[in-house]
Amino acid sequence: MALIIREAVREDTATLLGFIRELALYEKAEHEVAATAETIRESIFGRDSVTRALICEQDGEPVGMAIWFFSYSTWQARNGLYLEDLYVTPKARGLGAGKAMLKRLAAIALENDCGRFEWSVLDWNEPAIRVYEAIGAEPMKEWVRYRLAGETLRDFAES
């Protein structure tokens, strides 16, 4: 029952895409997934990619992923690490896979002199919130996240 956290490689493309689809289903947003194997390969493993991924394996079987990138804090004048998505398969929940990936990401942040390690969580995802609070993470309640996407993004850029 050993957990191994490793860097994702190009050969993990299908696994990552499967996890992304499972996460979207869990978040009730499967209709929003536009990712394909080709776009995953290019966006995570492409030559100019700034995105990275981890795979968590239990006894050699992939059971989770973390997709992340470096962000930047103007106030700290330092990079930060931003966790875009963390996912653990239902059969591996409760085994410490999520916490193990968070610990590895925290270590990566420290190895790269990051001033912060941040992520977002849906306000209804109580199991994840309990894990995050248990490790000492604090919600940023005064911040509201905004987004432009799709046609709204295009319309605004072209106006």
Automatic annotation (TrEMBL):
Keywords: Acyltransferase, Transferase. Gene3D superfamilies: 3.40.630.30. Residues 3-154 form the N-acetyltransferase domain. Signal peptide: none annotated. SUPFAM superfamilies: Acyl-CoA N-acyltransferases (Nat) (SSF55729). This is GNAT family N-acetyltransferase. It comes from Neorhizobium phenanthreniclasticum.
